[in-house]
Amino acid sequence: MKPSARTWAGCQVVRLDSVDSTNRIARQLAAQGAPHGTLVLARTQTAGRGRRGRSWISPDGDGIFMTLILRPGEDFASARNLSLQAALAVARAISRTTGLDARIKWPNDVVCMGRKVCGMLLEMDADGGVLHDVVLGVGINVHQQVFPEEIAHTASSLDLLTGARQDSEAVVSAFLDAMEEVCALAQADEAAFMAAYAAQSATLGQRVQVIAHAGSYTGLAQAVTPDGALLVLRDEDGALCEVLAADVSVRGIMGYV
What is the CATH number of domain 207-252? Predict the structure, then answer.
């Protein structure tokens, strides 16, 4: 990675060939005292995971499979919008390195030209109401040329979308730079951060379908709260509903986004 003015993100980098999950390795390292900003990078994962128990396909050398160890403080409030911060950092990194218009499908999928190119999974280590650390797993499709049938219509890679081979190391470096930048903004001015997130959103202002165990409904995505909830104006009765990422799946009316 090129030298930068970063102060903490990527302060230590652990490079591995093949692991079951970079999040699992990062959790082990965090438990052993690895510092805030330690990055775990792997060429491939044999058991990569995404949100809501989904698997994350991690072909050898074709993508970026990484986990960043974060120690935001013992108060859970300090970590309440880390997922949004990470999504904004990834979107900025992809845009800056590839020229693509990277957007965020709430809460933290990154899409380009309507196709998903990045997903992430945050896991917290806490007990007794005290937050010890957070591991932020990020998977970015870079060189993949084909995808399994079940996701072929929603996923793509940076190479496919740009028509040129992209530099994974440059994307990782840009992500670390952007992560420091975005975290600093969120800490200094939460309203400015939320405005920046909204400006990069592919979801806000769009009609969406909210799919939950208790039933589904459609509505207009209006805003995202500082806690990361999506506010949807429901078509059926005009009620403003607060949607939590852990509870539902949100899809665009006309497609994935």
Answer: 2.30.30.100
**What gap in Å lies between CA 96 and CA 252, rounded to an integer?**
26
User: Residue 77 — very low, low, confident or very high, per pLDDT cuts 50/70/90?
Assistant: confident
pLDDT score for 51? 54
Please say whether the beta carbons of 72 and 131 come within 8 A.
yes
Dist CA 7 CA 131 (whole Å): 22
Instruction: Give the closest residue to 85 by CA, choosing from 188, 204, 196.
Output: 196
What values do phi and psi take at 87, rounded to 5? -65, -45
pLDDT tens column, 162-187:
999 999 999 999 999 999 999 999 99
Q: Tell me the CA distances in angstroms from 59 to 36, 43, 62, 65, 138, one per residue in order.
A: 28, 8, 6, 10, 14
What's the pLDDT tens digit per position in 195-221? 999 999 999 999 999 998 888 999 999
The kind and range of the H/E element at 175 are helix 168-188
- CA-wise closest residue to 17 among 42, 39, 40: 42
Tokens 């974060």 sit at which residue?
Answer: 70
Domains 13-199 and 207-252 share a fold: no
Beta bridge partners of 224: 230
Tell me how far apart the alpha carbons of residues 73 and 80 are, in angstroms, rounded to a whole number: 11
- Whole-model pTM: value is 0.92
- The architecture (CATH level 2) of 13-199 comes to 2-Layer Sandwich (3.30)
Instruction: Give the single-character DSSP code of 76.
Output: G
Q: What single-letter DSSP state applies at residue 155? A: B
Nearest to 101 by CA among 173, 174, 166, 162: 162
Cβ within 8 Å of residue 195, ≥6 positions away: none
The domain ranges of the chain are 13-199, 207-252
